[in-house]
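TA notes. Do not distribute before section.
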Amino acid sequence: MDNENFNMSMRKFLKQVGVTSQQEIEATVRETDLGDAPTLKVKMVLTAEGTGLNHVVTGEIDVG
């Protein structure tokens, strides 16, 4: 495994995930009636085809 290529490829993927996820969350907050909810509960699930990877991250985003 070429660590330099692996790291560059992984960083590119994670940047894409971060940017597109932020855009989707912002659009959802704009377009959805969240009522008086001060937070948006979120969950990100990471899988990798052909592996047993199943990483779940949960959290809350302050929208108030």
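Switch to the second chain here.
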Amino acid sequence: MRTESVSGHAPAHGSARSDERRETVLLFRGRLQDAMDRAKMSKSALAREIGVDRSTLSQLLASDNDRLPRADTVAAAARALNISLDWLMGLSAFERSNADILHEFFEFAPSERTPVDANIAQWHAEAMGQKIRYVPATLPELFKTEATIEHEFRDFAAKTTRQAKAASEDKRAFSRMPSADMEMCMPVQALRDYAAGAGIWRGVSVADRREQLLQMAQMADALYPKLRFYLFDGLTHYSAPYTIFGVGRAAVYLGQMFFAFTTLEHVRVLTNHFDDLIRAAVVHSHEVSDHIRAMVDALEEDGA
């Protein structure tokens, strides 16, 4: 067993960095004790698992300790207690690993949705009262009509139309809750492609496209300002689809799978990226319904 010097006190500089370090030590100590309690693991048992003396572990947990252990000790403790290293060090608000990969499945789950959809619904619930930021893969799910969903998911490998409709209803229900706070942003060109029936939307009738666009405009009006919808220029900015759930979690969609992050640094980077998209918007939330209705007018003129 190795011993570590953890009882000495770091010099007080009165700086913000020193204060931050003390807060980190306090958080580490509390989370380590909490994880041990829930795992019903004694100091002796954990000390054996991570290869340190029991006295060393006792010093780490002492209320007057203001120093962190060696990095390999922290990592060993996280592994032994089956918790996230980032959570233990206060870098994440969640105990799970800071990057999970969730795959979409082909088969039905009992709830008629995929396990991924269940996770996303839970993440929305956990972020209730916080801002949800969303860059959709195609059109925003909560805006989609049945005709759009039928076209988009009729032959889709990873999700059925029934699952897609359930996910859309979930998003819609969330957006109507009193504490909902959502921002969505997508390329203006993607909306033009839909209006024109181009790309993956080839084959959607003019009537169905008109109904979809009108529903989008009406919902954008009805849900504003709880929901704010922006359009950015895809020729100047690019974004993969992702959702940021408050300040603690983000999920990036790569097609048939999500990469879910709970590390605060990763969430912050994606939040800054989303804010850049908002700043680059060419159609702002208070303008978007009129912009969409203009597309409907153009469709009607083309059909005349």
